[in-house]
Design a protein that fits this description.
Elements: E1 2-4, H1 6-12, H2 15-31, E2 34-35, E3 40-44, E4 47-56, E5 60-68, E6 80-87, E7 94-99, H3 100-119, E8 126-130, H4 134-146, E9 151-155, H5 159-169, E10 178-181, H6 185-191, E11 194-197, H7 210-213, E12 217-220, H8 233-238, E13 241-244, H9 249-252, H10 254-262, E14 270-272, H11 273-279, H12 283-287, E15 291-294, H13 299-316, E16 320-321
Parallel strand pairs: 1-7, 8-9, 8-11, 9-10, 11-12, 12-15, 13-14, 13-15
Antiparallel strand pairs: 1-16, 2-4, 3-4, 4-5, 5-6, 6-7
Helix pairs in contact: 1-3, 1-13, 2-3, 2-11, 2-13, 3-4, 3-13
Length: 324
Amino acid sequence: MLILSKAEVENAASLDEILEAIEESLAIYGQGNFYMPDRIHVDYQGKTLLYMPCVVDDRLMGTKYLTMAPGNRKRGLPSLDGMMILNDFETGFPLCLMSGTALTGMRTGALGGVGVRHTTPEDLSTAGLIGTGVQGLNQLRYAAHVRKLRRICLYNASLEKMQAFAGQLEKVIPAGIEIVYCHDAAELLAKSELVITTTTSEKPVLPDDEKLLRGKHYIAIGSYKPAMRELPDALFKVVDHVFYDVDYAKEESGDLSQPLASGLLPAGRLARLGDYVRDCKDKDAVKRSTTVVKSVGMGVFDVVAGDLSYRKAKQNGLGLEVDC
C-alpha cells in the first residue's frame, strides 16, 4: 500500500488535471455511474465524524473519513482532518492511504474553480473571500488559476488573521495580484465581482441588501448542515441561477434548504452544476447574470480525484510503500 502525505497529495497532480477530474466526477454523477450511500454523520458534543464510501464506474472504490472539530480554531489548529483510503475494485486490497485534509481542500477548491470557469465572464478580475481558512486558500488558488485576477479582497473580523492568511495566499497565486483588507462584508461586496464564502456560520455572512448582491457571482462552500447559512434572503430575490453539485445539497445545506422551504428560492432556478456544464447552450447569458454555485461535496469527487493523485504519485515516485 502507498502512503501519501499532505504535501504529496497536493503536488502529485497539476491544477488543470484536478479541474478535469472534478468535471469528470460531475459527469459521472449526472450519468449515475456510481454507488454512493448517504454519507454517515456522527455528531457528538459539537464534533462531527463523516464517513463517505463510494464506488465509481465499477472500477474505483474508496472511503474518506473526516473529523470536524470547530473548537480547534481556538487552539490554532485546522477544524477539519481525516484520511482517504483507496481499494482495488476486484480484490478490495488497500492501494493507497492519503491525507483526507489535502484531498478535501484540493477537490473542493477545484469544484469552486469549475464553478468560476463556467458561471463567470472570462474577463472577471476581482474576487472577495469571507472565511480566511484553509478552504478559502484553496478556493482562491483555483479561482486565480481559471481567471486573470488583478485584485483579491479579504474580510475577517481580525486584521491579524487576514494578514497571516495573505502571507499564505501570496505563495499559491500568481504574482502581482493586489490583496485588499476590507472593514466589513459590504465593502467586500462593493469591490468584488466574484464572492466566495467558506465559513461554518449559522447566520448569513453577507448583507441582506438586494442592490449590493445583484449582478455578482457566488461560490458558497461552508454550509453543510441545515442550520448553517452563509447566504442572505435578499440574494434569493435577485439570483437568476443557482447550481448545486449533488442532489442532497438541497436538504443538507441551510443555504438551499431554508430558502426552498420558505419559498424564496423557486425550484425552477435550481440546476445541477454538472448538467449545466455539459448541456447548456448559452453559457454567455448565464455568465452575465447573478449566479450561485453551492457545494457540499460528495464521495465521487474523493474517489476520482484520489485515484488521480494515486496514479500520478506512482508515476513520479512519491509516497511510502508499506506491506499491510
